[in-house]
Amino acid sequence: MPAPVERASVSARVWLDAARPPTLPAAVAPVLVGTALAEGFTAWRFVAALLVALAFQVGVNYANDYFDGVGGIDTPDRVGPRRAVASGLVAPAAMRAAMLAAFAVALASGLALAVAVGWELVVLGLVLLAAALGYSGGPRPYASVGLGEVFVFLTFGLAATAGSAYVQDATVPLAAWPAASAMGLLAAALLMVNNLRDLPTDAAVGKATLAVRLGEARARRAYAAMLAGALALVPLVTLAGGGLGALAGLAAAPLAVAPIRGVLGGDAGLALVAALRATGRLQLAVGVLTTAGVLLAPALGGEAALAALGGEAALADRIVEPAPAALAGGSAS
Length: 333
Fold this sequence. Notes:
The two termini are 37 Å apart. The chain has one domain: Farnesyl Diphosphate Synthase (Orthogonal Bundle). The protein is mostly helical and 333 residues long. The longest helix has 30 residues, at 271-300. The chain is 71% helix and 0% strand.
């Protein structure tokens, strides 16, 4: 009976698209980097932190789909991948349930870490949950007043990176802060290029994202500045005690060229979806290369570690391949 199987397959694809795979590097990369910069390592804590980050990211994406769908923010004129609630593919109640389930997974994993490390993590988790719900929901969503990039910088930059180091050692090393800031800027760039694509329709419905507030020209420059700033922070990880191997993160720099050229060159609409995916690949490459450099440097020696990792664009291209077409349909908001 092929029809039910086909319907189940379509349903799975809808939920996968709603989870927005191109945004998931913003969850994975900071956990890798923060864990690498910690002194100790407990495997289950790393896995739990990764699960927290991924479930939280999916929950934020589902929440955005739900709140923007029921609030009329997503309209048929919107350019880019379809939204599940706004397009009628998923009922609002079902999306709300999926959102709560994702946050429940994040909170459960966080609770296990809190039992092992400290109850201060419960406070952090509740603050982040409230911030996630207020991003697109509530009487005055702050994503609609230009504060979305601040949210992702703090959440998927500082909290995710420093928090991943903290759950290993119950302290945050100095080197984790410039690394966290780099991760935060890359996550903010993901959102900025997404909002740049949606600028015309967001402005039409009164959603005053940072891109809308800055205007198109300045938003494009802000995106390029975020990528450049993130890469400029990588050497500070080394200077703050992260080791010479952290400089391996700079090998991902060539991946920034194409999206910056496209955004500054005036790419618009669907062309910016490619820049969004490229930004996600850049963040993951910076995270993977920085992590590998930090971990391998003590064994290989600083200079040898950098040589082994290959400070060239070809390495970064091999580490992060473009997302398959079946997974590349998501976006940041």
